[in-house]
Design goal:
The protein is an alpha/beta fold. It contains 18 helices and 17 strands.
């Protein structure tokens, strides 16, 4: 008798085969995270799964029997008519991106797939719709597009800025070269030579201001610019600002009207930086006002603060550009033709410096051709007592006694011209063009102060400073780093190497003189 092999137990697929397919389909619909909805060919809702409740917020009883337009924005009702027309023709709509409205009024990005439902004879009798909430995906896509656009804009602005920077740095070179060439011509009168020197000085000052603004903006952005606060009087700060802006005001024949408080206003502030704020605003007003214009600088006490305004009758600012005037490198097309040199960083610098003082700055204008007003609000606070600088008490050693100074710089022109300047002020100066030569000279000369370039070819200025500090007399010498590198880490490295001061090229003669005055007492020993 043949042996009968028992049938294997039913597997998962066999169990599914025994299920009611309608029940299985209903379970899938009920458990889906997507909204699965059926509707008539007139657009009335027939069924509504839990996924639709989760996405749109309506319970089935609230929507079944109602038009599907309950979740369609009014401006998109025509879209639903087109969908219904396609369904009647037996067409299917796949992954159609659109917008739908929730019960609480939120608008959602939705991806729709709509299919015709057919009777046994193939007639289209209804429609089924699967709606997926793609808001997060759309938001991510939009963020990516925004990021790409921001990168493109930043790249374009970088290119424009570099082109503008090159243009602005080249512009002063032409008059400098012409003035130098003219001074070499035989038969030049003292007056002609003096005029050429004034041109060179003016253009060098302009280039220095461009570079200083760039460095200041960089320091503010990185949070490394430190204010040197002391008790300052507002009118003296404004006076310094006017002195800086005076050449531009005079050149354009502007009338400057002052309206200042009759009583002194004491501030706890960095007077140099505040003067920079107000001079930038005055120069800005002068640039963008036609010759013979009127500029007003006023100041008033308001509560615990002071308000300083700079008003002009210049070209004005369109309303849509007002929020952008303090942005880096911003210059409107109307302003570009009148900029007369500049990188569009002045107002950004103003905002940064005012913010560091705990104040605010605001721009106002009634529109093109109707002038502008810039309003600076600063806290007055409680002024600290004036500190006495022991380094400048008593004899003015730098001006009267004359110091022994050693300059070490591989840029021969820079070293020689700085030496000429200091010698003209009564100092005894020697120059070296390499670090080793400088060290040899220092041992014999024993200078009171040394101006050391950092980027020397044979040994950098940091190492040279350390070697000088190791000498018995070198511990009391004044060491000044003179370099083109002005980052905060460069300053810290200079201090760590033994430098007393860190100056960023190009430095003015006045800066060197003031520095030596402040350190002269120590240097003279």
């Amino acid at each position: 008798m043949d042996k009968v092999t028992p049938a294997p137990p039913p597997g998962p697929v066999d169990e599914v085969d025994h299920l009611d397919h309608r029940a299985l389909l209903a379970a899938i619909v009920e458990s889906s995270d997507d909204a699965i909805v059926s509707k008539t060919l007139e657009g009335r809702i027939l069924s509504w799964n839990p996924g639709a409740t989760r996405i749109f917020g309506y319970q089935p009883a609230e929507v079944i029997g109602k038009p599907i337009t309950i979740i369609i924005p009014e401006e998109l009702h025509g879209e639903e008519l087109q969908i219904l027309a396609k369904l009647r023709r037996g067409e299917r709509i796949d992954h159609f991106d659109t917008v739908r409205v929730t019960k609480d009024g939120r608008r959602l990005a939705i991806s729709l797939t709509v299919s015709p439902v057919r009777a046994a004879d193939g007639t289209v009798i209804a429609a089924s719709k699967v709606a997926r909430d793609v808001s997060e995906r759309k938001l991510a896509e939009q963020r990516l597009r925004d990021s790409e656009e921001a990168l493109r804009l930043a790249d374009r602005r970088k290119d424009e800025f570099l082109a503008l920077l090159a243009h602005e740095l080249r512009n002063p070179l032409a008059p400098i070269r012409y003035a130098l060439a003219a001074n070499r011509k035989p038969g030049r009168t003292p007056e002609q030579c003096r005029h050429a020197e004034e041109i060179i000085e003016r253009q060098v000052t302009h280039m220095s201001r461009l570079l200083d603004d760039m460095l200041d903006i960089s320091r503010i952005t990185r949070g490394t610019l430190e204010l040197k606060k002391s008790r300052v009087e507002l009118t003296s700060v404004i006076g310094a600002a006017i002195e800086t802006a005076r050449p531009m005001l005079d050149e354009k024949h502007h009338t400057l009207v002052l309206d200042l408080p009759t009583q002194p206003v004491q501030l706890e502030a960095d007077g140099v930086r505040l003067a920079q704020v107000f001079s930038n605003l005055l120069i800005n007003a002068a640039k963008y006002t036609d010759p013979g214009g009127h500029i007003r600088l006023g100041a008033t006490r308001q509560g615990d603060g002071v308000v300083v305004t700079v008003t002009d009758n210049g070209i004005g600012i369109p309303a849509e550009l007002l929020p952008r005037v303090f942005s880096m490198f911003f210059q409107s097309s109307a302003a570009l033709a009148r900029a007369e040199g500049g990188l569009g960083v002045g107002l950004s610098l103003v905002r940064g410096l005012v913010s560091l003082h705990g104040g605010t700055v605001e721009a106002r204008s009634n529109g093109p051709g109707r002038g502008s007003e810039f309003i600076v609000r600063l806290p007055v606070g409680t002024p600290a007592p004036l500190a006495v600088d022991a380094g400048v008490e008593g004899e003015n050693i730098c001006a009267d006694a004359g110091l022994k100074i050693l300059i070490v710089d591989d840029n021969r022109d820079a070293a020689d011209t700085c030496a000429m300047l200091l010698e003209a002020s009564g100092h005894h100066v020697q120059t070296a063009y390499t670090a080793r030569q400088g060290l040899e000279l220092a041992r014999a000369f024993r200078p009171h102060a040394l101006l050391l370039d950092i980027g020397l070819p044979d040994m950098d200025g940091y190492r040279l400073a350390e070697k000088i500090r190791d000498l018995p007399w070198g511990r009391g010498a004044v060491l000044v780093a003179v370099t083109g590198w002005g980052q905060e880490q460069d300053r810290k490295r200079a201090v760590a190497a033994g430098f007393d001061q860190h100056l960023v090229k190009p430095i003015s003669a006045e800066t060197v003189e003031m520095l030596l005055q402040s350190l002269g007492a120590r240097a003279a020993r």
